[in-house]
Hints:
This protein has about 90 residues and is mainly α. It has 4 helices and no strands.
Amino acid sequence: xxxxxxxxxxxxxxxxxxxxxxxxxxxxxxxxxxxxxxxxxxxxxxxxxxxxxxxxxxxxxxxxxxxxxxxxxxxxxxxxxxxxxxxxxxx
Length: 91
């Protein structure tokens, strides 16, 4: 359960970190879903899920050491909060 929550949190953080303009036009969950559904078939396969998680991991791993530290997670969380504020104010 903790691993699933961490993966979902990581995905949310990364989407908000890179979402920018697209987020202002769409709901956050829609942005996450569309980013993961790379073949556009309306479904997220296991392979797409893992690829999305890997991409999110790489975005959070700021020093590229293959690990996400508490500091990197906190920085991602702070970035997500800023993106969410932008999203909320753009409505």
